[in-house]
Amino acid sequence: MDEKTALCQKAVEMLKMAYVPYSRFPVGAALECADGTVFTGCNIENAAYTPTVCAERTAVFKAVSEGRRAFRRIAIAADTEKFCAPCGVCRQVLEEFAPEIEVILVNREGKTLELTLPELLPYGFGPKDLER
Ligand code: THU
Predict the structure, then answer these.
(1) What per-residue confidence (pLDDT) applies to 124?
(2) What are the tens digits of pLDDT across the range 45-93?
(3) Any catalytic annotation for residue 56?
(4) What does the pLDDT read at residue 10?
(5) Residue nearest to atom 5 of ligand 1 (CA)
(6) pLDDT in tens, 98-129
(7) CB 18 within 8 A of CB 79
């Protein structure tokens, strides 16, 4: 099995870890770092709603907190026929560390859609934009 397929499989496996009592909309993510390590994530909801964190950010924050800051690709799985694209906040969080990251969406049937962050977040604002 190739690396991409394995990453997609890990994202799908994370669907069962999602804590989604309010939306009933599980999302799983698997983030591949530049050194080849993979960090997974799921969405974690909250009774106060706004503290809810998406699967993608769970994975990124796990990786950064373990010393990784360079990422190659992220797979995002949802239990829906439609592909689940990352929300605006997650796109911005990815922009901070990996403006060129490959984003692979996986649907319920295991079909994939390969995108890039520049496609999802054109003219993204990142650390370099603070330089003057
Ligand atoms: N969600 C994610 O985890 N990732 C996405 O890409 C889109 C949305 C979560 C947030 C919330 O728990 C649920 O899906 C419904 O919005």
Answers:
(1) 97
(2) 999 999 999 999 999 999 999 999 999 999 999 999 999 999 999 999 9
(3) yes
(4) 98
(5) 86
(6) 999 999 999 999 999 999 999 999 999 999 99
(7) no
Q: List phi, psi (to 5°) of 103.
A: -120, 120
The residue among 34, 32, 53, 51 whose CA lies nearest residue 43 is 53
| Active-site residue identified among 45, 56, 100, 102 | 56
User: Percentage helix, strand, coil, to 5, in the chain?
Assistant: 35, 25, 40
* Nearest ligand 1 atom, CA 84: 6
Out of 82, 84, 106, mutate this one to test ligand 1's pocket (max ligand atoms within 8 Å of CB): namely 84
Residue 42's DSSP bridge partners are 28
